[in-house]
Every structure is written in structure tokens, then in C-alpha cells.
Amino acid sequence: MKIASVYDPSFRPYGRVLAGYDTAALIQAMENIAMPGEGVAYEPSIAALEDCAIFGRLQNHAFGGMPIQLGMCWGHNTKLNCLEYHRDSEINIGASDFILLLAKQEEITDGMLDTAKIQAFRAPAGAVVEVYATSLHYAPCQTEDTGFRAAVVLPKGTNEAKPVFSPVNEEDGWLTAKNKWLLAHPESSEAGQGAYVGLTGENIDIAKDI
């Protein structure tokens, strides 16, 4: 699979790289958190990361003063498995390089998305990468056998328990947490746990491409 840089023009429909942020202290705080033994871990809010000065800058500048949370997704991953989206941008900052597998919300047809539409982008360590609300994404992929650590910045409350309601449309069935709509690949563990299966085609694995 071709892997482009987040600085390549082909990334522009999916997101952008934000300038003007010092990420050194955040990266150090991320590296102090131990890797999971296997698989991927995610915590939406981590005090040690939110104590870094960049938290206030991201809240006031990148999110225009809206309340945010700063957590991390980290571990070992080379597969797609699922795609999710939010009603707002997500910001990722890697302690090392990482790869995003992305598609566009507009490419969902009749509740399904063909994984042949997915594009891969490599983000260098320390880059502040904004992924637009209309970009489908999921856990980053590693570029090295040692795994990856990626800060995840979202509006406060995202990924908490979803609201209780009676569905009124198809999209309501994709909601798996607060502000999180998810399409799972049938081979994923999420599908096995009851998540909506909305991906067709190959469950992309970039292991051979890194």
C-alpha cells in the first residue's frame, strides 16, 4: 500500500498539520507511560499529559476555547479493523512516527464503505496533525516493531458512555460511544462484540509496507 506523508498535498482533503506548538514536554510525558503487553490501549484523558503546557494552547488555539481532553492511543498495531468519526476534528501527536489509515465520510454508501477507498499517511514524531471531522480514522499504525504512542485530543466527554435513546435513523445504529460513530470490519474484535459491520473488502494490514 502506498503511504504518503501528511505534508503531501494528497492529505489536504483529510486534514492538516498545525504549526506553532512545542511538543517536547508532551512527548516526554507520553514516553513515561509503559507500553501494553500486546494490542492497543486507549485512555481519553490522562492527567500527566493534560498537565503539559501544550494542553492550554491546544484548547485555546486549536479548539477555540472549547473544553477538551488529552489522552493517548498506544501499543502495537498494523491493521485497519474499524473506522470511526466524530462531529469535530481530532488532533494526533506522535512520540514517534505513526501511520493513519483514512477514508472520507462521504464515501459511505448505504451504510457501507469499501476499504479500497482507504488512503495511508505517515506522520512524523512531534507533528501536530489535525484530522477533520469528515475523515474516517481509527487506531494509528506503528512504523517500528517497538509500537507507537499517539496523543489524542478531542472535545471533553468524547468516547464516554453513549446516550440512551431509541434510534431514529441508520446512523444512530453506528454510535458506539459519546461523539463516536463506528464502522467495523467483519474480521475485527469490535464486530465480534456487536459493533455495526460497515466495512467491506480487505481488512488492510500495512505490516509488509513499513
Notable traits:
single chain; 210 residues; six-stranded antiparallel β-sheet; five-stranded mixed β-sheet
Q: Helices and strands in order, then pairings?
A:
Layout: E1 3-5, E2 15-18, H1 24-31, E3 40-43, H2 47-50, H3 54-62, E4 68-75, E5 82-85, E6 90-94, E7 98-104, E8 113-114, E9 119-123, E10 128-131, E11 135-136, E12 141-142, E13 148-155, E14 175-177, E15 180-184, H4 189-192, E16 199-200
Parallel strand pairs: 1-9, 8-16
Antiparallel strand pairs: 2-10, 3-4, 4-13, 5-15, 6-10, 6-13, 7-9, 7-11, 7-12, 14-15
Task: Explain the overall architecture.
- The chain is mainly beta and 210 residues long.
- The protein has 4 helices and 16 strands.
- The strands form 4 sheets. Strands 2-10-6-13-4-3 form a 6-stranded antiparallel β-sheet. Strands 1, 7, 9, 11 and 12 form a 5-stranded mixed β-sheet that branches.
- A hairpin with a 2-residue loop joins strand 14 and strand 15.
Look at the helices and sheets and give the structural class.
Answer: mainly beta
In DSSP terms (H or I, runs of 4 or more residues), the helix count works out at 4
Report the principal-axis shape. globular
* Residue windows where pLDDT falls under 50 for at least 5 positions: none
- Total beta strands: 16
Give the averaged pLDDT, no decimals: 98
* Rg over CA atoms: 16 Å
How would you spell out the order of helices and strands?
EEHEHHEEEEEEEEEEEEHE
Measured as a percent range, the helix fraction is 10-25%
Amino-to-carboxy terminus distance: 10 Å
Sheet of most strands: 6 strands, antiparallel
Side-by-side strand order of the widest sheet: 2-10-6-13-4-3
Strand content: 25-35%
